[in-house]
Specification:
The protein is globular and about 55 Å long. Helix 2 packs antiparallel against helix 3, helix 3 packs antiparallel against helix 4 and helix 10 packs parallel to helix 12. The chain is built from 17 helices and no strands. By secondary structure, the protein is an all-alpha fold.
Amino acid sequence: MSPPPPPLGRSRRRAAQAFEAALDDAELISARAALAQGRWQAARSLIAQSGDEWDLRGHRVTVLALEPYSAAWTRDWLLAEPESADASVLLALAQVQRSLRGKEKPDRAREACRTAAERAPADPTPWLGLLMLERGTAGAGGAVRIFEEVRRRYADHHHAHHLMVARLAEHRADAGPDPLHEVYDFANWAAEQAPADSPLAILPVIAHAERYRVLAGAGHEPPDPAASGHWVGRRARQVMKAAFDWWLEWEHEGHPRRLVDLNFLAHAKVCEGRGAEAAALFHRIGEHPTPAPWAYPDRDPASAFRAARDSALGTV
Protein backbone atom coordinates (compact mmCIF):
# COMPACT_ATOMS: atom_id res chain seq x y z
CA MET A 1 0.00 0.00 0.00
CA SER A 2 1.29 3.46 -0.87
CA PRO A 3 1.91 5.85 2.02
CA PRO A 4 -0.40 8.77 2.68
CA PRO A 5 0.83 12.09 1.32
CA PRO A 6 2.70 14.21 3.87
CA PRO A 7 1.23 17.52 5.02
CA LEU A 8 1.55 20.34 2.52
CA GLY A 9 3.03 22.80 4.97
CA ARG A 10 6.68 22.83 5.98
CA SER A 11 8.20 25.04 8.59
CA ARG A 12 9.98 28.07 7.21
CA ARG A 13 12.83 27.51 9.62
CA ARG A 14 13.44 23.99 8.35
CA ALA A 15 13.30 25.14 4.73
CA ALA A 16 15.71 28.01 5.40
CA GLN A 17 18.24 25.68 7.01
CA ALA A 18 18.03 22.99 4.34
CA PHE A 19 20.45 22.77 1.44
CA GLU A 20 18.66 22.42 -1.87
CA ALA A 21 19.85 19.17 -3.44
CA ALA A 22 18.14 20.15 -6.71
CA LEU A 23 20.40 23.22 -6.86
CA ASP A 24 18.82 25.68 -9.31
CA ASP A 25 16.75 23.18 -11.33
CA ALA A 26 13.25 24.64 -10.91
CA GLU A 27 11.60 21.85 -12.89
CA LEU A 28 13.22 19.28 -10.64
CA ILE A 29 12.06 21.09 -7.51
CA SER A 30 8.50 21.11 -8.85
CA ALA A 31 8.58 17.43 -9.84
CA ARG A 32 9.99 16.42 -6.47
CA ALA A 33 7.23 18.32 -4.66
CA ALA A 34 4.62 16.54 -6.79
CA LEU A 35 6.25 13.17 -6.12
CA ALA A 36 6.16 13.86 -2.38
CA GLN A 37 2.38 14.10 -2.74
CA GLY A 38 2.14 10.88 -4.71
CA ARG A 39 1.82 12.50 -8.14
CA TRP A 40 4.52 10.65 -10.04
CA GLN A 41 3.55 11.87 -13.52
CA ALA A 42 5.70 15.01 -13.23
CA ALA A 43 8.74 12.90 -12.33
CA ARG A 44 7.95 10.61 -15.25
CA SER A 45 7.90 13.55 -17.69
CA LEU A 46 11.03 15.14 -16.24
CA ILE A 47 13.11 11.97 -16.48
CA ALA A 48 11.89 11.35 -20.02
CA GLN A 49 12.79 14.93 -21.02
CA SER A 50 16.34 14.40 -19.73
CA GLY A 51 16.88 11.82 -22.47
CA ASP A 52 20.50 10.73 -22.80
CA GLU A 53 21.97 13.84 -21.19
CA TRP A 54 23.49 11.56 -18.60
CA ASP A 55 24.73 14.16 -16.11
CA LEU A 56 21.31 15.82 -16.15
CA ARG A 57 19.44 12.53 -15.91
CA GLY A 58 21.66 11.29 -13.08
CA HIS A 59 21.25 14.52 -11.14
CA ARG A 60 17.47 14.53 -11.48
CA VAL A 61 16.98 10.87 -10.65
CA THR A 62 19.29 11.12 -7.65
CA VAL A 63 17.41 14.12 -6.23
CA LEU A 64 13.99 12.58 -6.85
CA ALA A 65 15.21 9.43 -5.10
CA LEU A 66 15.99 11.43 -1.95
CA GLU A 67 12.27 11.98 -1.29
CA PRO A 68 11.43 9.62 1.62
CA TYR A 69 8.41 8.04 -0.10
CA SER A 70 9.98 7.97 -3.57
CA ALA A 71 10.26 4.18 -3.62
CA ALA A 72 6.61 3.69 -2.67
CA TRP A 73 5.27 6.14 -5.22
CA THR A 74 7.54 4.75 -7.92
CA ARG A 75 6.10 1.29 -7.31
CA ASP A 76 2.70 2.84 -8.12
CA TRP A 77 4.24 4.11 -11.35
CA LEU A 78 5.50 0.61 -12.15
CA LEU A 79 2.04 -0.83 -11.52
CA ALA A 80 0.72 1.55 -14.17
CA GLU A 81 3.67 1.01 -16.55
CA PRO A 82 5.32 -2.33 -15.70
CA GLU A 83 7.84 -2.09 -18.56
CA SER A 84 9.03 1.45 -17.79
CA ALA A 85 12.83 1.60 -17.72
CA ASP A 86 12.67 5.11 -16.25
CA ALA A 87 10.53 3.91 -13.34
CA SER A 88 12.94 1.03 -12.72
CA VAL A 89 15.89 3.43 -12.62
CA LEU A 90 14.14 5.77 -10.16
CA LEU A 91 13.09 2.85 -7.97
CA ALA A 92 16.67 1.58 -7.94
CA LEU A 93 18.09 4.91 -6.83
CA ALA A 94 15.32 5.30 -4.25
CA GLN A 95 16.25 1.86 -2.87
CA VAL A 96 19.88 2.99 -2.74
CA GLN A 97 18.94 6.07 -0.71
CA ARG A 98 16.84 3.94 1.65
CA SER A 99 19.81 1.62 2.09
CA LEU A 100 22.15 4.52 2.83
CA ARG A 101 19.68 5.67 5.51
CA GLY A 102 19.62 2.18 7.04
CA LYS A 103 16.03 1.49 5.96
CA GLU A 104 16.73 -1.10 3.28
CA LYS A 105 19.11 -4.02 2.94
CA PRO A 106 21.99 -3.19 0.58
CA ASP A 107 21.49 -6.44 -1.34
CA ARG A 108 17.92 -5.44 -2.22
CA ALA A 109 19.14 -2.06 -3.44
CA ARG A 110 21.85 -3.74 -5.52
CA GLU A 111 19.30 -6.10 -7.02
CA ALA A 112 17.09 -3.15 -7.96
CA CYS A 113 20.05 -1.41 -9.62
CA ARG A 114 20.94 -4.48 -11.64
CA THR A 115 17.32 -4.89 -12.74
CA ALA A 116 17.30 -1.25 -13.86
CA ALA A 117 20.61 -1.72 -15.67
CA GLU A 118 19.11 -4.62 -17.63
CA ARG A 119 16.11 -2.53 -18.63
CA ALA A 120 18.20 0.51 -19.56
CA PRO A 121 21.54 -0.94 -20.75
CA ALA A 122 22.89 2.37 -22.11
CA ASP A 123 22.07 4.34 -18.95
CA PRO A 124 24.93 4.87 -16.45
CA THR A 125 22.48 5.90 -13.70
CA PRO A 126 21.85 2.41 -12.22
CA TRP A 127 25.62 1.97 -12.04
CA LEU A 128 25.85 5.33 -10.30
CA GLY A 129 23.51 3.89 -7.67
CA LEU A 130 25.75 0.86 -7.27
CA LEU A 131 28.74 3.17 -6.87
CA MET A 132 26.96 5.05 -4.08
CA LEU A 133 26.46 1.76 -2.25
CA GLU A 134 30.20 1.04 -2.44
CA ARG A 135 31.17 4.00 -0.24
CA GLY A 136 30.74 1.99 2.95
CA THR A 137 32.45 -1.22 1.86
CA ALA A 138 36.03 -2.29 2.44
CA GLY A 139 38.44 -2.34 -0.47
CA ALA A 140 38.19 -0.41 -3.72
CA GLY A 141 38.04 -3.25 -6.22
CA GLY A 142 34.26 -3.27 -6.47
CA ALA A 143 34.07 0.49 -6.79
CA VAL A 144 36.65 0.53 -9.58
CA ARG A 145 34.76 -2.12 -11.55
CA ILE A 146 31.47 -0.25 -11.18
CA PHE A 147 33.13 3.05 -12.08
CA GLU A 148 34.41 1.48 -15.28
CA GLU A 149 30.86 0.44 -16.13
CA VAL A 150 29.77 4.06 -15.70
CA ARG A 151 32.63 5.31 -17.87
CA ARG A 152 31.87 2.74 -20.55
CA ARG A 153 28.46 4.34 -20.91
CA TYR A 154 29.52 7.94 -20.38
CA ALA A 155 33.22 8.65 -19.93
CA ASP A 156 32.83 12.13 -18.41
CA HIS A 157 30.17 11.32 -15.81
CA HIS A 158 30.46 14.15 -13.27
CA HIS A 159 28.86 12.59 -10.20
CA ALA A 160 30.64 9.26 -10.61
CA HIS A 161 34.03 10.96 -10.76
CA HIS A 162 33.23 12.89 -7.58
CA LEU A 163 32.26 9.66 -5.81
CA MET A 164 35.50 7.98 -6.86
CA VAL A 165 37.58 10.93 -5.68
CA ALA A 166 35.88 10.85 -2.28
CA ARG A 167 36.46 7.10 -2.03
CA LEU A 168 40.10 7.21 -3.08
CA ALA A 169 40.85 10.12 -0.74
CA GLU A 170 40.04 7.86 2.20
CA HIS A 171 42.88 5.43 1.45
CA ARG A 172 45.75 5.46 3.94
CA ALA A 173 44.27 8.17 6.14
CA ASP A 174 46.62 7.34 9.02
CA ALA A 175 49.73 7.81 6.88
CA GLY A 176 49.38 11.59 6.92
CA PRO A 177 49.94 14.13 4.14
CA ASP A 178 51.34 12.72 0.91
CA PRO A 179 51.67 14.92 -2.19
CA LEU A 180 51.90 11.72 -4.28
CA HIS A 181 48.68 10.21 -2.95
CA GLU A 182 46.70 8.20 -5.49
CA VAL A 183 43.67 10.50 -5.33
CA TYR A 184 45.72 13.29 -6.89
CA ASP A 185 46.92 11.00 -9.67
CA PHE A 186 43.36 9.88 -10.38
CA ALA A 187 42.00 13.43 -10.48
CA ASN A 188 44.79 14.64 -12.75
CA TRP A 189 44.34 11.64 -15.05
CA ALA A 190 40.57 12.21 -15.31
CA ALA A 191 41.02 15.92 -16.01
CA GLU A 192 43.59 15.19 -18.72
CA GLN A 193 41.41 12.49 -20.33
CA ALA A 194 38.36 14.74 -20.54
CA PRO A 195 37.65 17.21 -23.37
CA ALA A 196 38.97 20.74 -22.90
CA ASP A 197 35.55 22.11 -22.02
CA SER A 198 34.68 19.36 -19.51
CA PRO A 199 33.97 20.40 -15.91
CA LEU A 200 36.15 17.47 -14.86
CA ALA A 201 38.94 20.04 -15.16
CA ILE A 202 37.90 21.04 -11.63
CA LEU A 203 38.43 17.49 -10.30
CA PRO A 204 41.94 18.14 -8.88
CA VAL A 205 40.36 20.79 -6.62
CA ILE A 206 37.76 18.26 -5.47
CA ALA A 207 40.55 15.80 -4.71
CA HIS A 208 42.38 18.40 -2.66
CA ALA A 209 39.30 19.14 -0.54
CA GLU A 210 38.39 15.48 -0.06
CA ARG A 211 41.91 14.65 1.04
CA TYR A 212 41.76 17.52 3.55
CA ARG A 213 38.50 16.06 4.92
CA VAL A 214 40.22 12.74 5.51
CA LEU A 215 43.44 14.17 6.92
CA ALA A 216 41.61 16.52 9.28
CA GLY A 217 39.39 13.68 10.44
CA ALA A 218 42.53 11.68 11.28
CA GLY A 219 44.07 14.61 13.15
CA HIS A 220 46.75 15.43 10.58
CA GLU A 221 45.26 18.84 9.67
CA PRO A 222 43.59 21.52 11.82
CA PRO A 223 39.77 21.50 11.97
CA ASP A 224 39.63 24.98 10.41
CA PRO A 225 40.53 24.57 6.72
CA ALA A 226 41.49 28.24 6.39
CA ALA A 227 44.12 27.70 9.09
CA SER A 228 45.57 24.71 7.26
CA GLY A 229 48.59 24.83 4.99
CA HIS A 230 46.86 22.31 2.76
CA TRP A 231 45.94 24.95 0.15
CA VAL A 232 49.05 27.13 0.16
CA GLY A 233 51.85 24.90 -1.10
CA ARG A 234 53.26 25.34 -4.59
CA ARG A 235 51.49 22.32 -6.02
CA ALA A 236 48.17 23.29 -4.43
CA ARG A 237 48.39 26.83 -5.82
CA GLN A 238 49.06 25.47 -9.31
CA VAL A 239 45.98 23.26 -9.06
CA MET A 240 43.78 26.12 -7.87
CA LYS A 241 45.04 28.52 -10.53
CA ALA A 242 44.52 26.02 -13.34
CA ALA A 243 40.97 25.33 -12.15
CA PHE A 244 40.08 29.00 -11.78
CA ASP A 245 41.54 29.80 -15.21
CA TRP A 246 39.47 26.98 -16.69
CA TRP A 247 36.35 28.40 -15.06
CA LEU A 248 37.04 31.87 -16.49
CA GLU A 249 37.35 30.43 -19.99
CA TRP A 250 34.74 27.69 -20.01
CA GLU A 251 32.14 28.54 -17.35
CA HIS A 252 29.28 26.08 -17.90
CA GLU A 253 26.03 27.87 -17.14
CA GLY A 254 24.00 24.88 -18.31
CA HIS A 255 25.67 22.00 -16.48
CA PRO A 256 23.26 20.54 -13.90
CA ARG A 257 25.94 20.16 -11.21
CA ARG A 258 28.04 23.24 -11.94
CA LEU A 259 27.13 24.71 -8.54
CA VAL A 260 28.84 21.77 -6.86
CA ASP A 261 32.06 22.71 -8.63
CA LEU A 262 31.59 26.40 -7.85
CA ASN A 263 31.25 25.69 -4.14
CA PHE A 264 34.41 23.58 -4.09
CA LEU A 265 36.30 26.20 -6.06
CA ALA A 266 35.09 29.06 -3.84
CA HIS A 267 36.05 27.07 -0.75
CA ALA A 268 39.54 26.50 -2.18
CA LYS A 269 40.00 30.18 -2.97
CA VAL A 270 38.92 31.15 0.55
CA CYS A 271 41.39 28.67 2.04
CA GLU A 272 44.09 29.94 -0.31
CA GLY A 273 43.45 33.51 0.84
CA ARG A 274 42.37 34.74 -2.62
CA GLY A 275 39.39 36.84 -1.50
CA ALA A 276 38.69 38.66 -4.76
CA GLU A 277 38.62 35.45 -6.78
CA ALA A 278 36.43 33.82 -4.13
CA ALA A 279 34.05 36.78 -4.30
CA ALA A 280 33.55 36.30 -8.05
CA LEU A 281 32.62 32.68 -7.39
CA PHE A 282 30.25 33.55 -4.55
CA HIS A 283 28.40 35.90 -6.89
CA ARG A 284 27.85 32.97 -9.26
CA ILE A 285 26.82 30.65 -6.42
CA GLY A 286 24.18 33.07 -5.17
CA GLU A 287 21.77 31.28 -2.83
CA HIS A 288 22.87 27.78 -3.83
CA PRO A 289 25.51 26.54 -1.37
CA THR A 290 26.23 22.83 -1.13
CA PRO A 291 27.02 21.02 2.15
CA ALA A 292 30.34 19.78 0.78
CA PRO A 293 32.96 21.11 1.19
CA TRP A 294 31.74 23.71 3.70
CA ALA A 295 31.06 20.95 6.22
CA TYR A 296 34.65 19.67 6.09
CA PRO A 297 35.83 18.20 8.33
CA ASP A 298 32.94 18.44 10.83
CA ARG A 299 31.70 22.05 10.67
CA ASP A 300 28.20 23.46 10.35
CA PRO A 301 28.10 24.01 6.57
CA ALA A 302 25.55 26.84 6.60
CA SER A 303 27.55 28.88 9.12
CA ALA A 304 30.84 28.12 7.39
CA PHE A 305 29.45 29.16 4.01
CA ARG A 306 28.00 32.43 5.30
CA ALA A 307 31.19 33.36 7.13
CA ALA A 308 33.36 32.61 4.08
CA ARG A 309 31.04 34.48 1.74
CA ASP A 310 30.76 37.53 3.97
CA SER A 311 34.53 37.66 4.39
CA ALA A 312 35.20 37.31 0.64
CA LEU A 313 32.59 39.85 -0.40
CA GLY A 314 34.00 42.26 2.14
CA THR A 315 37.32 42.23 0.32
CA VAL A 316 35.95 43.77 -2.90
